[in-house]
TrEMBL record:
InterPro entries: ATPase_AAA_core (IPR003959), P-loop_NTPase (IPR027417), Rad50/SbcC_AAA (IPR038729). Gene3D superfamilies: P-loop containing nucleotide triphosphate hydrolases. The keyword ATP-binding does not apply. It comes from the Bacteria. Keywords: DNA damage, SOS response. GO terms for biological process: DNA synthesis involved in DNA repair; double-strand break repair; SOS response. GO terms for molecular function: ATP binding; ATP hydrolysis activity. This is AAA family ATPase. It comes from Dactylosporangium aurantiacum. The keyword Transmembrane helix does not apply.
Length: 472
């Protein structure tokens, strides 16, 4: 669970600090840079999984395509000043993990702060493109005694916090950076604390972060941080992927674009239902029936042993059976989220862009309720019936804003700020709603009131505003 994100120098994110709860909605007009928050989270996840250059190539570029020029990643990418970007993430990491060799492990402590700083080196010699330079990396613990103040979102200390914040650590960091002869040197420190010698390595030519290189259980806390960051996904459901039937040999875990939806529902219905797949199908159908205009009697996955295919079928109240390829885009996306809701193995952080797309306005309350229900209930202990899942969405829809609790909202605006080289550029600011848990410290001066956001909340004539600030 990502509880806090700090970004400086990445795209239009300058000195950005944001706290997250189980569910967060970032709302604002198009063009403010809302999606850059998702890009930053995705980049951190990729840095934990692959070399830095590969991670950079997978990040969304300025026009939605993959990054073509590394300088596009930096705030001042095309200026003469030195290019640097830094990230810090405070996170609750999973307690039960497996290393790359299938061995079980758990971290020394489950509340951690990870930071990394990356620079840009221009092409040199025979090089045709620049490269990324690892300038700093650290992984430190956050003591249990500090958890109450660091987890600012409302939650149950007994049921939630005591179940997810475990272990203890004293002494040194798990990863630290020092400077020797003008160059950064990154060291791994053993989980045992001060016992054992640190393992240093020069960072200047490192192709990857230290976190991404840890594969075994010898450094279990670093591995737990890696597993947590690997679980940060950008959910971008594509109708073509959702409509595809699954072969018997295909994976039975839904991908970020919705591929393998049929196989995933089949696995849940057969494996998680304890011999009663009809119960799972009925729950999915009942949730899907909340959509106005969709007549649903049942949902099931049909096995075709001749072609060895699994296909989702929806049965309408009239008895007509429709395969997934015949369903509308909005129905398919809603169905995919219903399946995700039933899958306890799908944990981690999910970032969703504008979940209202393709949904009829009359169905927005059902969609918003479903997305919120995907997030872990922080008044209870996480478990199979309460998967440890975190949801962040962005939207420019006033209707969605009115349906979200004030404490879950952040309003995205852009302001002019001086770049590192002294020029003025547009930077993203995330503003909390006044009188909510998000207001405090520097966030206080950015808080907005209901009067401030009335222009944004303007609805069609005759509509009533329903956002109640006193409910926070």
């Amino acid at each position: 669970m990502l509880t806090r994100l700090e970004v400086n120098g990445f795209k239009n994110l300058l000195d950005l600090s944001v706290d997250f709860g189980a569910f967060t909605c970032i709302a604002g007009e198009n063009g403010t840079g809302k999606s850059n928050v998702f890009d930053a989270i995705q980049f951190l996840s990729l840095l934990a999984d692959m070399p830095m250059m590969d991670a950079a190539q997978h990040v969304r570029g300025v026009h939605g395509e993959r990054i073509g020029d590394l300088r596009d990643l930096f705030w001042n990418g095309y200026e003469a000043a030195e290019r640097r970007m830094s990230f810090a993430a405070e996170m609750i990491v999973p307690w039960d993990i497996e290393d790359d060799f299938g061995r079980a492990a758990h971290p020394t402590i489950s509340f951690l702060r990870y930071s990394v700083e990356i620079g840009y080196a221009p092409p040199f010699g025979i090089e045709k493109i620049g490269r990324l330079r690892l300038l700093h990396e650290s992984l430190t613990h956050i003591n249990q005694g500090d958890a109450a103040s660091r987890l600012r979102f409302p939650h149950s200390a007994k049921n939630f916090r005591s179940n997810v914040i475990k272990g203890r650590r004293s002494g040194t960091a798990f990863i630290s950076t020092s400077v020797e002869t003008g160059e950064p040197v990154i060291s791994i420190h053993q989980d045992g604390g001060s016992r054992g010698m640190p393992r240093p390595a020069a960072a200047s030519r490192a192709p990857a972060t230290v976190v991404s290189t840890v594969t075994g259980s010898d450094d279990q806390t670093i591995l737990a941080a890696r597993r947590e960051m690997q679980s940060w996904r950008r959910l971008a459901l594509e109708p073509s992927a959702l409509r595809t039937s699954d072969r018997y040999v295909d994976p039975r875990l839904m991908e970020s674009d919705g591929r393998h939806l049929s196989g995933t529902l089949y696995r849940i219905a057969i494996g998680e239902s304890h011999g009663d797949p009809a119960r799972i199908y009925a729950r999915v159908a009942n949730r899907l029936a909340e959509l106005a205009g969709v007549s649903v009697r049942g949902v099931e996955v049909v096995s075709d042993d001749v072609r060895e295919l699994l296909t989702i079928y929806l049965e309408e109240s009239s008895g007509l059976r429709l395969p997934a390829r015949s369903l509308s885009e909005g129905t398919l996306r809603f169905l995919a989220l219903c399946v995700l809701l039933e899958d306890p193995s799908m944990t981690g952080l999910y970032c969703m862009e504008e979940p209202e797309n393709g949904i009829h306005p009359a169905n927005l309350p059902s969609m918003v309720d479903l997305v919120k229900d995907l997030a872990v209930d922080v008044t209870e202990a996480p478990g199979p019936d309460n998967p440890f899942r975190q949801i962040i969405i962005n939207t420019h829809s006033p209707a969605v804003v009115q349906l979200v609790d004030p404490g879950d909202l952040l309003f995205a605006t852009s302001v002019r700020k001086p770049s590192p080289d002294g020029t003025m550029s547009r930077s993203l600011v995330l503003r909390p709603l006044a009188n909510t848990w998000r207001v405090g410290g520097q966030a206080s001066k950015h808080a907005v009131t209901k009067a401030d956001i009335l222009p944004y909340l303007t609805s069609p004539p005759g509509a009533q505003l329903s956002l109640d600030l006193d409910a926070a």
